[in-house]
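Posted in: Protein Modeling Q&A

I'm a second-year student putting together a small comparison for a lab meeting, and my supervisor asked me to include a predicted structure for Glutathione peroxidase. I've never done this before, so apologies if this is the wrong subforum. The sequence is pasted below exactly as I got it from our records. If anyone can share the structure token output, I'd also love a short note on what stands out.
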Amino acid sequence: MSIYDYSVTLDNGTTYSLSKYRGQPMVIVNTATKCGFAPQFGQLEEIYKQYQNQGLVILGFPSDQFHQEIGDGQAAAAACRTTYGVTFPMHAVGPVNGEEAQPLFGYLTEKAPGALGTKKIKWNFTKFLVDRDGNVVARFAPKTTPDKMIPAIKQVL
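Accepted answer (user: helix_wrangler)
Welcome! Here is the predicted structure, written out as tokens:
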């Protein structure tokens, strides 16, 4: 399977295939609006604005896996838009670990394991970089701020 075989659901309930982004680099991030790392939304938005004309897309996936998300996808997206000015696509709230995890996150963690080879997402704001060919090329820890991802992003542009 490739990343383009996965379908995801936007905050408004619309489901689509990631094949929509074929040929575009992606940053995929699990988010939580009540997390201490939530200010990263601002940096992610800055990166999105700076590089979207070169094809970059950032996809936010709210999760309450760590009990730091509000309500449903629409409430989470509204909070991101209001507080941080987020304009990149936000998705439905869903788990990122375990048997109930969104299939996309099982794929991402398989292709880009964490420290010591772990396939588990340890916290909110784990970020995955996907190149134009759909390859998962990097995984960034929650504490890694988005601005530290810019060199890697430039390589896939």
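A couple of things worth pointing out for your meeting: The chain has a mean pLDDT of 92. The chain has one domain: 3-156.
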